[in-house]
Design brief:
Length: 348
């Protein structure tokens, strides 16, 4: 693993100067990253569709009447070979959505919403272990787990625990050989949460997780040919993006935005979005449930925007794959996306 690009929040100067530096850095990094090659395969699998406040997902831009929209969480499975021939497998966003329900925000939402209403919003599409079994990937083959950030995540069933758990008993690791790639900034931030962070984390679930299960990194790291963890702070201090070089060009995946049109809002048909972006001279629409450092999140999204290629299906939109993507639902008028990728498929 090799560090390749500075943390955009640590560039010198104020946020405007840092944004200019991001623009200057992006093209050289694009060339460098593309030269690393491509992974053997990239596959996506749907996990769960959940309700999410419209005012969070589309910041201040939406004029939809629906207070909630729907986001679909998907897992990305990436496989590559090292120079010595060893095969590596990375799972990006392998959310244990059963335990994720106990995140304070979603637990409170579940308490307030009648079950008949919840069933209209919440749809389970599959599980991490079920998808891997169907793909013929043994749990022992998984080398890395990676999340854009650790909001809602409970990792105990994936990496095991060092002691008996009140709710789960003693937990053996489902992925005994896996390391969780995480930015040091996020691990440090979780030791003492700020009030704006508390609704979105489950810090108690990390107390008995083996420390050796984590692979802390600080900045942007090339993981393998055509695979990188790109530090993109702002949504959380230690936010990171999965960057992929594929047969259709470069892709990025994170939860910095929830819709691909949030990167080119001028082409959005979502009520209010294009008009708001033009009125406020905003080139991107943030996902804003937590905006720990708003200007840095904006700069990080611009970096993602400049690194990826345009969609071959519609060149107005970019090859950005939201890790929790906006999907249309009859329950949420005015929130159907203008364009959606739905999946990434790549085979070398």
């Amino acid at each position: 693993m090799v560090d390749t690009l500075a943390d955009v929040s640590r560039l010198p100067g104020g946020p405007g100067r840092r944004l200019r530096a991001v623009r200057d850095l992006a093209e050289s990094f694009r060339r460098e990253f593309a030269s690393t090659g491509t992974p053997d395969s990239v596959t996506t699998r749907d996990l769960i569709t959940l309700p999410y406040p419209t005012r969070f997902g589309l910041f201040r831009a939406s004029r939809a009447v629906a207070p909630f929209l729907s986001i679909r969480n998907r897992m990305i499975v990436v496989r590559w070979r090292e120079g010595d021939g060893r095969r590596r497998t990375l799972l990006f966003e392998p959310s244990d959505h059963e335990l994720g329900e106990f995140t304070p925000y979603f637990a409170e939402l579940k308490r307030k919403v009648p079950s008949i209403v919840e069933s209209a919003y919440r749809v389970e599409h599959g599980t991490v272990l079920g998808h891997l079994a169907a793909m013929g990937i043994a749990r022992s083959e998984v080398d890395y787990l990676m999340f854009d950030h650790l909001h809602t995540q409970d990792l105990r069933r994936w990496v095991g625990t060092t002691s008996e758990q009140r709710d789960l008993g003693r937990v053996e690791a489902a992925f005994p050989n896996a390391k969780v790639i995480v930015q040091k900034d996020e691990l440090e931030g979780m030791t003492e949460l700020h009030p704006i962070q508390k609704p979105w984390y489950q810090p108690a679930t990390y107390r008995d997780v083996p420390a050796e299960s984590f692979y802390p990194i600080d900045g942007t790291v090339i993981l393998g040919p055509g695979v990188a963890a790109l530090k993109t702070p702002g949504h959380v201090f230690g936010n990171q993006t999965l960057l992929l070089n594929t047969s259709t060009g470069i892709w990025a995946s994170s939860e910095n935005v929830i819709a691909v049109e949030s990167l080119t809002p001028e082409h959005s048909k979502l009520p209010g979005v294009a008009k708001w972006a033009k009125a406020w001279d905003q080139e991107v629409i943030l996902n804003a449930n937590t905006i720990e450092t708003t200007a840095d999140q904006y700069n990080s999204i611009v970096l993602e925007k400049l690194l990826v290629d345009r969609s071959q299906r519609d060149s107005r939109f970019l090859q950005f794959f939201p890790s929790s993507e906006l999907v249309g639902a009859w329950t949420n008028p005015g929130t159907s996306p203008t364009f959606s990728h739905g999946h990434i498929t790549h085979t070398a």
